[in-house]
Specification:
alpha/beta; disordered N terminus; binds thiamine diphosphate; binds magnesium ion
Length: about 350
Amino acid sequence: MTFDLRLSTLDFARSGLRVPTKLTRQQHHDLYYYLRLNRRVDEQLVSLFRQGKVVGGVYSGLGQEAISVGTAYALEPQDVISPVIRNVGAMIIRGFRPRDLFLQYMGRRDGPTGGRDANTHFGDLARGVVAPISMLGETVPVAAGIALAAKIKKEKRVAVAYVGDGATSTGPFHEGVNFAAVLKLPLLIVGENNGWAYSTPIEKQMAVRSMAERAKAYGIRAVTVDGNDVLAIYTATLAATARLRRGGGPEMVECLTMRMKGHAEHDDARYVPPKVFEKWRKRDPIALFEKYLAAKKLMTADEKAAIEERIEREIREGVAFAESSPFPAPEEAARPVWA
Ligand SMILES: Cc1ncc(C[n+]2csc(CCOP(=O)(O)OP(=O)(O)O)c2C)c(N)n1
Ligand SMILES: [Mg+2]
């Protein structure tokens, strides 16, 4: 069975971007801005990588932007996210700027970790962002702990854990979901089902049909939505977090999507059948949203051009700032490092 067959047999909300929402015109523009900014940051990082300016790898979220953006945009300021490597869009919505990403990826002194770590391994609890954790599945118990603290302190805070399909095969995922389910914690698990974990396809990852089925086995609510439909994701997140704030137990929103690149820039994804890429290319989340905005007359050509101009300026200024930032001095290397 291929990933594509699963997509068509799954009982998921095929909204086709027709979800009724109460978003204002400006909010539609915000979503478009964040989607495009996420993509442009990714593209710029790839360009910097090819110029040999990036320290380490580049892990693109190409094709998955609607998940980061649709979920993070539905949250409230007091909420906390525990993202993974492809959630640049969510980190941007929580307040990081493109230049933070460029500085960090280029290992520069003015970056979030002062040049001591690479890629998206940085966070800021003041912005409600736990630094992405490399050990797959660990976002779930970490976010469950934050949700437990919120519950004990009676704060209306929701914790959000992002996990990939591969990450749901780890022990921490299962332990974390069970823990949160038993204690009815305000934990939202965003399942990013992009069909692959490195070169392992989903059918070699799990014998059940979906990540949602795995979650439901622990007695929690789980829905599967079109992961390339930013409005469907936003709506599902809003509904889930509203229930969580009222004291409902943890939930999962599984988003079906496709990683439109290899695992990172060093991986050409030759193990993915070309027809799979072809199919998903027609479902690009940004192109779909653009079509929707045009059909609903929610964005004029001038408004779109102004958004693009703003994004290009931010990218240009971010790159220029990062390139002019020095590398950290060797004697600073071990300073704020714990061990
Ligand atoms: C516990 C653990 N095992 C293995 C790895 C190596 N690894 C890093 S990313 C990855 C694949 C992740 O797949 P998935 O969770 O589906 O996320 P995606 O890359 O598709 O976004 C693997 C195996 C790891 N980081 N942690
Ligand atoms: Mg995956």
